[in-house]
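User: I've been trying to design a sequence by hand for this structure and keep getting stuck. Would you show me what you'd pick, starting by listing the structure so we're on the same page?

Assistant: Good idea, let's start from the same input. This is the structure you sent:
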């Protein structure tokens, strides 16, 4: 029976860098925290209200003066935050693809690191106090 050769974007995976492809494989998981998912849109959505309030504080005016303009702008800036997050994710995906392509086309530059047991990495404890 013929051995199947794994390919990524039409490039066959060299057995020497198979370990690197397993490390880079996300396996369909999303490793982004809930806080990070809302960071861009949330901060940009709150920006108009907070900037108007800060401006009013600096000029010693009532804090809620012109706040309605900030409330009206919040959905627009929230949408801009979503678009900024998507733009950043596309850049990160392109960078991952570029690194993966470089590893696949230059397998000789990426030798597999030796396997080391955790017990072998533990060093003798030394007191570093005065």
């Amino acid at each position: 029976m013929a051995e199947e050769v794994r390919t990524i974007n039409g490039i066959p995976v060299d057995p020497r860098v198979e370990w690197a492809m397993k490390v880079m494989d996300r396996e369909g998981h999303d490793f982004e925290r809930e806080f990070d998912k809302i960071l861009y849109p949330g901060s940009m959505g709150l920006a108009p209200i907070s900037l108007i309030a800060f401006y009013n504080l600096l000029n010693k005016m009532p804090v809620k003066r012109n706040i309605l303009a900030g409330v009206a702008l919040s959905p627009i800036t929230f949408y801009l935050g979503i678009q900024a997050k998507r733009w950043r994710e596309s850049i990160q995906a392109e960078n991952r693809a570029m690194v993966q392509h470089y590893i696949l086309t230059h397998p000789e530059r990426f030798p597999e690191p030796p396997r080391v047991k955790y017990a072998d990495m533990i060093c003798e404890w030394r007191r570093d106090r005065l």
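That's my pick for every position. To get oriented when you compare it with your attempt: The mean pLDDT is 89. The longest helix spans residues 67-105.
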